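User: Structure please.
Assistant: Input sequence and predicted structure:
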Amino acid sequence: MKKLLRGGFVVTPRGSRRADVLLDGEKIAQVGHISPAEAKSAEVTDVSGCYLFPGFIDAHTHFDLDVCNPTTADDFASGTRSAIRGGTTTIIDFACPNKGETLAYGLDLWHKKADGKCSCDYGFHMTIDDWNEGIEGELDDMFAAGITSFKMYLTYPAMMIGDGAVYSALKALKKRGGIAGVHCENAGVIDARIAELKGRAADVSAHPEARPDYLEAEAVARLLRIAEAADAPVVIVHLTNREALDEVAFARARGQRVYVETCPQYLALDDGVYYDANWSMAARYVCAPPIRAEENQRALWRGLRRGEIQTISTDHCSFTLAQKDMGREDFTKIPGGLPGVETRGEVVYTRGVASGKMTVAGMCRALCENPAKLYGLYPRKGVIAAGSDADIVVYDPRASHILSARDMVTKAGYTPFEGLRTEGGIAKVYLRGSLMVEDGRIVGGPEGQYLRRGLCTL
């Protein structure tokens, strides 16, 4: 049966307008005025006063990931349930083969982790943590499998491949129309600073002090010069600070194509979280790059308004508080990562739209259209238009509530935004026409499909 969402405001990157939306099976059939004859044959849902966003896309999650012994609390079953409850109808996770393993092995392993378990649609980036003729020879197979984006690291010895290999990989990806997202921090200096801070091993605040913002900015600048040499586009993932964003501006002034992602924790929290007298309270915020000083929030929001930052993803990498406890005697052993996929939409609306730092159109760009275009999913995803997938988030500005771990689906057992009073809330979520979430309750099953993605069109 057709479904008609009546009375809402459809949000696009250009603004919002009052329009009805007719769903027919998995697709959007019509947006605008729906004739009485068509309405008569549809199941009508009144969404008056609500915003209708395209389903949110989170292009940076880590589900069922082994990180130096502990495995993330959320697998693809719980992680995508958490995602769909938060309005995210598509996630792109990272297939991560270890050094010495093939890309094909990594892709097969991630399919085994995800297939049949997901409550939202899903795709994969492929991590490149080895570079040789064999890995390069697998790239065409990855593109054939719908993997058109890749991940590289300038930090973490188990995953980084060196500047020369990054250069060669960027050239190989450019030849095929692909793109790489890169984690930018200066590994050598960070390791040296960690060695200097060993006397404060039980002090959580040693974590941000070991990884200052200027070492992220240095790595961003270095990557962008490597990308300039390779004449290749790149994505800077989870950018946190003004100096790093300045380096992006310099590269764009040189004519380079650079895309930037940031995360809610960098937009809404500051580095004071690491100085809490309660060790467990401080340790739960350990992530890399760390949460920065408050003045960087202003630069990030300004970058979003000006279009200098394209997407807001979460880097959802959840660990329980018991797992975080592994680092009580050594801050380097605190598993790094935060849960966030369940709260992203409400946090961005509350701290961005409701506070005047962002418009609903800007939110649509950063959470919907831009990631869809950047990662080869547009116009199937990222837009409410005839022929697109019927992925819709009904956001009710009147449904304010308090964020609390007690109400969360994530298995992390906590939320970084505990106690935040939201401005409104997610009332309904549709995935390809199926009602998945209603008034905070997940009412649909694991209906997620694997997405073969095309090339970047942003």
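Residues 323 and 335 are 7 Å apart (CA to CA).
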